[in-house]
Amino acid sequence: DSGVTQTPKHLITATGQRVTLRCSPRSGDLSVYWYQQSLDQGLQFLIQYYNGEERAKGNILERFSAQQFPDLHSELNLSSLELGDSALYFCASSSTSGSSYEQYFGPGTRLTVT
Amino acid sequence: AQSVTQLDSQVPVFEEAPVELRCNYSSSVSVYLFWYVQYPNQGLQLLLKYLSGSTLVKGINGFEAEFNKSQTSFHLRKPSVHISDTAEYFCAVSGSTGGFKTIFGAGTRLFVKA
């Protein structure tokens, strides 16, 4: 158990809909990262937040947005969903924002868009 | 910018045999290197990391990796694998100066056969 929690574990929704994925980092960790894992694209970095501020951006679509709240939990919002958005979405956390630090991954949310 | 190439998508090996999972990276700056493991239906967890110093890094579960700057490689090795090592292994790189992104390779599926 990494200490990172993600809800829900599974989500099935239709094209065009909007969903919110939630992540609670390990106690004391200030950085939260979001990744998308799919069979064809592998593990893709989406976005990082540190203590409430956006720190780094990866291949995140404009239809996707994220935020980190004062209690350090984070939400990833996916809108106008397409079939291709079906994937496993991971949240990870680390103690600081530095790139040398280990990231602790949650169990993921499996999103299926039908 | 950094990139990571994992040269083998799948590696089948018999139990108790040695294994090497290959990883090459490219970067214009000094790097930090990581190997993560993902067991079925779980998130990623850190096996080992190289930040600086000794080029031979020992990790959990008997794995080790060697940083070779001239060949820009960070291959993962284990002298004797177990059935329980069956998993997906990801090599990752991040820059030691500027930027906070960690880039993951496409993954290598290690399949240990009895």
How would you sum up this structure, described in words?
The complex is a heterodimer of chains A (114) and B (114). Chain A is mostly beta strands. Helices cover 0% and strands 53% of the residues of chain A. In chain A, strands 2, 4, 5, 6, 9, 10 and 11 form a seven-stranded mixed β-sheet that branches. The model of chain A has no long low-confidence stretch (mean pLDDT 93). The radius of gyration of chain B is 14 Å and the shape is globular. Chain B starts with a strand and ends with a strand. The interface between A and B is medium-sized, with 25 and 24 residues.
Condensed summary:
Chain A has 114 residues and is mainly β.
Task: Set down the secondary structure blueprint.
The complex is a heterodimer of chains A (114) and B (114).
Chain A: E1 5-7, E2 10-13, E3 19-24, E4 31-38, E5 42-50, E6 53-57, E7 64-68, E8 74-78, E9 87-94, E10 104-105, E11 109-113
Parallel strand pairs in A: 2-11
Antiparallel strand pairs in A: 1-3, 3-8, 4-5, 4-9, 5-6, 7-8, 9-10, 9-11
Chain B: E1 3-6, E2 10-14, E3 19-21, E4 23-26, E5 31-38, E6 44-50, E7 56-58, E8 64-68, E9 73-78, E10 87-95, E11 102-104, E12 108-113
Parallel strand pairs in B: 2-12
Antiparallel strand pairs in B: 1-4, 3-9, 5-6, 5-10, 7-8, 8-9, 10-11, 10-12
